[in-house]
Amino acid sequence: MVTAFSLSLGDVPLPTALAAAAAVVVSLVTLVLEARRRGGPTTGLVLLRAGTVAVWAAVLLRVEVRTERPRPRRSRVAVLFDTSASMRLQDAPTPSERPRPRYDRARAAWTPAVERDLQRRGFDLSLHGFDTEVRGLGATATDLFGAPPAGTSSNLAAALAAVAGATRPPSGLLVISDGRVFDPATRDALLDTAAALGVPISTVAAGAPYARDVWIAGVDAPPFAFAENVVDIDVEVAAAGYESVTVDVHLRAGGTILETRAITLDGSGVPRKVRFDVAPERVGSFVYTAEVEGPRDQSTKDNDRRAFVLKVLRDKVRVLHVAGRPDWDVRALRILLHRDPNVELLSYYILRDLDDILRDPTPPEDLSLIPFPTETLFAEELGSFDLVILQNFDLFRHQVDAYQDDLARYVRDGGGLVLIGGDLGLSEPGPFSKDYAGVLPIDLRRPSPFEVRPVQVTATPDGRTHPVTAALVRGIDGGVRLPRLSDRNRVRLAPHAASIDTRVLLEADGAPLLLAAEPGKGRVLVLATASSWRLGFAPDLGFIDGARPYDALWLGAVRWLLREEGSERLMVDTDRSTYAPADAVVVEATALGADYAPEADVRLEGVVRPLDEADGDEAAPVERFDLVTGPLGTARTVVRGLPPGAYAVEVVRAMDGGEPDRARRVFLVAPPRAELADVDARPGTAFLRSLAERTGGVFADLARRDPIPTTPPVRSAEARGPAVGRTTRLWDRPAMLLAALALLVAEVWTRRRRGFV
Amino acid sequence: MAATRRTVRRRPLLRGLAAAFAPLPPAPTGGPAVRLDLPQLRYDGRWNPRPGAMAELAREVRLRTRLDPTNRPSVVTLSSNALFENPFLYVAGEGALPAFDASQIERLRTFVSLGGLIVFDAADGGTDRAFRDSVAQTVERLFAGRRLSPLSSEHVLFRSFYILDEMVGRTRADPRVYGVLDEGRIQVLSIRNDLGGALARDASGRAIHPCIPGGPAQRERAIRFGVNLVLYATCLDYKADRAHVETLLRARRWR
User: Fold this and answer.
1) Is A550 on the interface with B (CB under 8 A)?
2) Predicted ipTM?
C-alpha cells in the first residue's frame, strides 16, 4: 500500500518556469474567451485544453512523481532436515500400523502446501540438510527427499551453530528429525548450546514409538590374531519390539560361514553377547563379518551385519634346521632361533655317521640318537616348513640329494632356504640337479673350497639397503667394528644369478660371503662361512640397536626370508583401515628394487575389489587405476565414493620374464553403525520436545499426526525494513508526448465538429 | 604355507634307518675342516692337574661322533683375547682357585653373557672342598645373587649323545653336576668327580688314574659323560626337542 506521494519539479530555470506558467494561463484564458464569444458548451474543450497544457507543463517543468510504501514484515526461518541414516529406520505410530521409514513420514508431512503456507504467512525459508555436516539444499521438497538418507552421524550442534552463525542469522529454526542426534552423556550440554543461540527452535519428530528390529550392536575382536591359534570374537546382538525372538548369528570369512550360533533375545534393546572361537589358518589381513539373521518384519536390514578386519600374524614359524656337523656356529644359531618364542624349531643334527658306528659299536639303546627321517623331512613334510636351514650339511652323504628337486620346488613355491657354508656343505662336488642349482645364487658346478684363515667382513652397496643387512651396515656406519671371521667358502656367482635377482650383500676379502636371491616366489640366502658366530662373540663387541651384530644379521635374514612386514619389494597401504562412506581412501604403493632401494618410474596397475563374496578374489573390480612411482619409490591415488563394504586394493607390477609381483591390502567402508544401532525413537522424540520447550519453539510429533508448524515462533527483534520508494519522471516518458498529441488531436476534432475554425 | 603337521611315522623311519646304513659317498676330504677347540684356562695355581685330559676328550669325541675337535686343545688365559676364540672354557684345578681380580671376573662375565659355557672340573674328586668352594665363590661374584645348583638327572646333558643317569669321573663322590642356567641353557657347570682324571692317559695311551670304585666300566661312563658334555656345548638342548623325545619314547629308550 502506498503510504506517501509527492510531486517535484525538475531543475528548470526560473524564467522558463514563469514563461511556461504564463503560457498555460494565456492558453486557458484565450480558450475561455473564444468559447464565450462563439457561445455553446465549452467544458469539454476547456478540459481538453487543460489536459494538453498540463501535459506540456509536466514535460517542460520536468515533473517527477515519487511514491513510497513500507517493506512487508517477513521472517527468515532455517529448516534443518535430518539426513542421517537413522531416518531410514522404519517404525509405526501404533502396533497395528504398517511401519514406514522415518524420512518417508517426514516427506509426507512436508508438502508443497506447507511451504506455500509458510511463505504466505511471511516466512522466508532456507532449507538445509544435516548429518555429519550441514549443507544447503535446493528450494523444494523434491530436493530434500531425492535420495534416502545415508549420513553416518547426526551432528545437530554443528548444524545449529553453522546456521545461526551465518551472516544473516535466521529468526527461527525448524528441525525435522527423529531426534537421534545426541549422545546421552551430552544431551543437556546440547540443550544448553541450543538455548544459548537465542533463536526459537521448533521441532518436528519423525520417529514413531513402535519398531521391530534385531541388530548387531557391536563386535569385540582383537586387532590381530596368531595363525592357528584360537581367538575369541564377541558379537553383541540386540532386539527391540519383540516379546522374544530367536535368531541365528553367523561369523563369516569372505563368503564362507565359519560358525553359526543361535541366540534368544528379548525386546529390551539390551545387547547380548555371542562368542565365536576362530583359529585363522593363514597369515594376512582378512575381512570377517558378523551377521544376524533377523525376522523379515524388522525395521531395517542395514544393521544386521558388521564387518571387521582381522590381521593374522604368524604364531609359530616352522623352521627346519639341519646341520651336517655340530659346531660353535650351530650352537649360536640354535640359541638365536630358540630365543624367539614364535619359532617352532625342528632340528636334525648329524651326530654320528657310519664311520663313527664302526669305530664305536655302542648298542643303540645306550644312545639317544634317532634316524634322520629324510623322506619325511624333505618330501612329505617339506611344505609345512616356513624356513629350511641347511648348515654345513652334505646332501649326498645323507641321501638328501634325492630330494633336490623337492627343495627347488619348495623354494619356487614360496619357501625360504638358507645354505650355510663349511667344510661339508658347500664343498660337495655334486652332481646337483638342474632345478636345485637353478634356485641357488652360487655356482654348483664346482665345489666352493673351504678356507680356514681370518677374513674381514665388508658390506657391499646392495647390502646397505637390503633388509637382511641394512641394520648390520647401519651399525658398521655407526662405528661398530665387526670381528674377523675364521673361515669362508670361496663361492662364485651362478651363471643364472641375475635372473633370480641375486644380490651380494656381504663380502670377505673381496669375495661374496652373503648372497640373497629370489627365485620364483621363494627366497634363498647363502652364507659362505662356518664362523658367523664370531659376529656375536668377541670381548669388545659393539651393539646395533641393542643387538649383537650376529643377532642383527640373522634377525634381518629371518624377517626377509619369512617375508615379514616391511621386507617385501612391492607394498601397498591405505591411510586407514576403516572409512566412512563419504571418505576418500588414500592408497599408497611403494616399489623397491632388487637391492631394496626405492625404485622410481615403476608402472603399477591397481584395482579395488569388493570382498563380500568368495573372499573377493573373483569379484569384479569397482575401481581401476594406474600408478607410476616417484623418486622415493612411492605413488599415490585417491579412491572415492565406495559404498559400505569390505574391499581389497591390489597393485601389480609386471616383472621381466617372471610372475608379476603383487601386493594387497584390505580395508573397510563402514556403514553408519551408531545411527542404526538402536531403533527406539522415543528418546529422540523426547529430546526434540525438550529442545522446543527450552528454546521457545513449538513441537510437533508426526507419529501423532501433528501437522508441521506453519507459524513457528521467531525472534521478536525481527526489524521492519526501510520503506520502499519509487520515483517516476513524468517528463521523460514517451507516453506524455503521445498524450499531448492525442489531446491536441481531440481538441481540433471537437472544435471542427462544433464549427470552430 | 599350509602347515600339515604329523609326527614321525614308522615307514619313513625305517627308510631313514635304511638310508643311514646304505653305502655312503665319501665325506669331503682333502681340505681344511671346521674344527672345534676345547680350550683350557691357565691361571696362577694348579691349573692343569690332569695334563692331556682335554686332548683325550677331543680324541674320544672325534672317534665316537661326527664332531671334529682339534687334536691339541688350546690353553688360554683370562687376559688374552684367545679366551673369546671359542664359547667353551674348561677350568680344572686342585685346591682353591686364585682370587680372580675384578677385571678377570669381568672378562668371565662377558664370556658367559655372550653365550659361553664354563666347565669347572675338580681334580680332587670330592676329597677336598677347597676347589669347589672357590668355584662357588667365583660363581657368586660372576652372577650376583645366583648360585650353583644341582641339575636334574633328566637334564638334556645326560642324553645329549649317550643316555646316562649320573655323572661319574675318576671318582663317584657326587653323581650330580651343578650348574647356573640362563633361559634353560647352562652357563656354568661344576663337576666334582674329576672328569679329567678319568680321561687322562699317558704317552702310551694307558689311563693314568684308576677309576674308583667302578674301574674300566666307570671310565667308559666318564668318557661318555665327556662326550655328552661336548655335544651339549655344541647342540645345547637339541635332544630335548619334541621329535627326538617322541622317537626315543617309542623306542623305549627313555629313562
Assistant:
1) no
2) 0.88
